[in-house]
Write a structure and sequence with these properties.
Radius of gyration: 21 Å
Structural class: alpha/beta
Protein name: 2-hydroxyacid dehydrogenase
GO molecular function, one term: NAD binding
Number of strands: 12
Order of helices and strands: EHEEHEHEHHEHEHEHEHEHEHEH
Number of domains: 2
Strand content: 15-25%
EC number: 1.1.1.28
Largest sheet: 7 strands, parallel
Bound molecules: 1,4-dihydronicotinamide adenine dinucleotide
Family: Belongs to the D-isomer specific 2-hydroxyacid dehydrogenase family.
CATH class of the largest domain: Alpha Beta
Enzyme class: oxidoreductase
CATH architecture of the largest domain: 3-Layer(aba) Sandwich
Length: 329
């Protein structure tokens, strides 16, 4: 079976080709899936996409008209795909529900450490032979309160690692896992209490109507002055304009982002020769206490290997006419 892989980059191609072996015919495409690029899937029965591809109804209709019957997501999140529209078109969808929660949790902690101890600033200074320490003061993580919104696989790992630093863990989740909390010295609280008590807030809930802009003007006003806010989940969990205001007033003391609500078309691409038209991210980049990575929290060799292997498993299920365990219903 021939599958069109959209948004493929150098960093993942070898993993995909190796996992495919000679069982699958892959068409590795660099462009993201959109209305304009959908025709590139002509002749393919399946399409494989990543987080910033457009899986909206009009695009799916175009794919279905080309004869595409299967959509394999190389991601856990599926907020970028209109599942109902796909099913109405008779298209089946599978995702990679878990590839390495460790990768994302560890990157989250890397952002916390780098922001707190101002590692990027220190490194840039040293390259300029400036060995002064002024402006580089951090804080002890030991004894601080870390609030985790969305205590699932990744949130729990972040809690576990931060517990190792001597932090107190509080969490907000729609479905509290009290057994885990008891075993790991964590406490579930309301979202308001989490905001008002945390020194560091880390977001690990999926993007859905209930979590969209869960961080906004009102929740920021409840936070401790100088709070550290980390988002490695999905950009639209935070209202970026409200967060920018929070940074300007000093209410937010540190911001670490791996995701951004307008990241599509921006992240994963080299825009170094372009005039960036997005004033919101341009402003964020000017703050010394903001650290942004380009949706790379998943990017470890273990995760890439697992994504490739599970994707091929999902495609195999389709070829064999089986309903695989990763299919979205
Ligand atoms: P998970 O499904 O194991 O955990 C999500 C948790 O959020 C669950 O405990 C769930 O009960 C909770 N939740 C759901 N709705 C909620 C609500 N309305 N309010 C509060 N909590 C709610 O997912 P996992 O694997 O931990 O991933 C979390 C998120 O991380 C994903 O949804 C995805 O957006 C993001 N992610 C980011 C990556 C990156 O590279 N930056 C890579 C992989 C995932």
């Amino acid at each position: 079976m021939k599958t069109a892989f959209y948004s493929t980059r150098k960093f993942e191609r070898d993993f995909l080709l190796q996992a495919a072996g000679d069982q699958h015919e892959l068409v590795l495409l660099e462009p993201a899936l959109s209305l304009a690029t959908a025709p590139l899937a002509a002749g393919c029965e399946a399409v494989c996409i990543f987080v910033n591809d457009d899986g909206s109804a009009p695009v799916l209709e175009k794919l279905a008209a080309l004869g595409v019957k299967y959509l394999a997501l190389r991601s856990a999140g599926f907020n970028h795909v209109d599942i109902q529209a796909a099913h109405a078109l008779g298209m089946r969808i599978a995702r990679v529900p878990e590839y390495s929660p460790y990768a994302v949790a560890e990157h989250t902690v890397a952002l916390i450490l780098a922001l707190n101890r101002k590692l990027v600033r220190a490194h840039n200074r040293i390259r300029d032979l400036n060995f002064s320490l002024d402006g580089l003061t951090g804080f002890d993580l030991h004894g601080k309160t870390v609030g985790i919104i969305g205590m699932g696989k990744i949130g729990k790992l972040v809690g576990h690692i931060m517990r190792g630093f001597g932090c107190q863990i509080i969490a907000f989740d729609r479905y509290p896992d009290n057994e885990w909390a008891k075993a790991n010295d964590a406490t579930y609280v309301s979202i308001d209490e989490l905001c008002s008590r945390s020194d560091i807030i880390s977001l690990h809930a999926p993007l859905m109507p209930e979590t969209e802009y869960i961080i906004n003007k009102e929740s920021i006003a409840r936070m401790k002055k100088g709070v550290m806010l980390i988002n490695t989940s999905r950009g639209r969990l935070i209202n970026t304009l409200d967060v920018t205001e929070g940074l300007k007033s000093g209410q937010i003391g540190y911001l670490g982002l791996d995701v951004y609500e307008e990241e599509r078309g921006l992240f994963f691409e080299d825009h170094s020769s372009d005039i960036v038209q997005d004033d919101v991210i341009s402003r964020l980049i000017t703050f010394a206490n903001v650290l942004i990575t380009s949706h790379q929290a998943f990017l470890t060799d273990t995760a890439l290997k697992n994504i490739a292997a599970t994707t091929m498993y999902n495609l195999d299920c389709f070829v064999k006419g089986e309903k695989g365990v990763n299919e979205l219903t």
